Amino acid sequence: MIDLNEHSSLEMLHSLPLWGKDEKLLSVEPAGESNMNLVLRVNTSIRSVILKQSKPYVRKFPQILAPVNRIEIELCYYQLIEDDDILSGYSPKVIHYNAEHHILLIEDLGNGIDFNTIYAKDYKWDDNDFHSISRYLNALHALEVSNFPDNMEMKKLNHEHLFRFPFLEENGFDLDIVQPGLQKISLKYKTDAEFKAALELLGKRYLAIGTTLLHGDFYPASWLKTENGVKIIDTEFAYMGDSEYDLGVLFAHFDLARMDESYQKTFLQLYQHSYAEDLVNAYRGMEIMRRLIGIAQLPLSLTLAEKKSLLEKARNYILPQ
Ligand SMILES: Nc1ncnc2c1ncn2[C@@H]1O[C@H](COP(=O)(O)OP(=O)(O)OP(=O)(O)O)[C@@H](O)[C@H]1O
Ligand SMILES: [Mg+2]
């Protein structure tokens, strides 16, 4: 495997067996914000493509090992939804896959921006965007899928940051650097045995294999707003699980973005599948908490008091009083 980086030369890229016979490479640049993988936009004499390479580690934090075959999960996922009339319109087309170098070439969806903007105070949802997100999840959870890889190594990596690390009393992550006072607030949950037992059970459930194909990371940074509408990317955490997981994670981000409850209601009115509300809530609570006190922080616009009350709400979602 050739381990590429954002400074790899055009010559080096061109030497890889990814290109047409007479195709010339004209320029290369990072495609956007990314932590896990190398994601480049490559302009050639005939097209512009996105090159995504997974590595045996987290690109931004090379000391953290990660399963190198995660790019195959994306490939599998995109191939599966390619034949679905609805889902295919929301996803980049697969152009080429190279197993030796763990590289996936996908369609360039253009210079879209992700939806991390929803956390801003004055964000106004465009109805079309909101309905796109609803349509996508409806269509995804309707798919009948067999033989999807279990993606267990990625789930274990994720499990650590969803269910364990944020709740360790001594994890070496000083939350006061995120926001002064947050460390003390977090201790209440880190020392709550009953709550942590419930969380542990939920974590086991996350690691189990279910019946619905999930995106697995269905939150604003996986949605791109492009000239051709909303597109959904970054499917490396996909797995067969509880549909409630994607729903819960989604609603957690509604909370983190301080969206009115009516959005969730509308979303569920449009949602065409059955679900267990308590399980949606449990995953929702976990996602709120791990985003507030875990390592994967977001560009939130919440005061300390707002975070405190959200954490309490999240605890009650996981362990209703
Ligand atoms: N098909 C595409 N078309 C246009 N831009 C894209 C495409 N795929 C990715 N990008 C851009 O590259 C960024 C990173 O892509 P992606 O989220 O897939 O990488 P990642 O390394 O898995 O990121 P993360 O660290 O969030 O998991 C996206 O936010 C987007 O800006
Ligand atoms: Mg990713």
From TrEMBL:
Domain of life assignment: Bacteria
Signal peptide: none
Keywords annotated in UniProt: ATP-binding, Kinase, Nucleotide-binding, Transferase
Classification via InterPro entries: Aminoglycoside_PTrfase, Kinase-like_dom_sf
GO terms assigned for molecular function: ATP binding; kinase activity
Gene3D superfamilies: 3.90.1200.10, Phosphorylase Kinase, domain 1 (3.30.200.20)
Transmembrane segments annotated in the record for this chain: none
Pfam families recorded: APH (PF01636)
Domain (Aminoglycoside phosphotransferase) ranges: 53-275
Similarity section: Belongs to the methylthioribose kinase family.
Protein name: 5-methylthioribose kinase
Organism lineage: Bacteria, Pseudomonadati, Bacteroidota, Cytophagia, Cytophagales
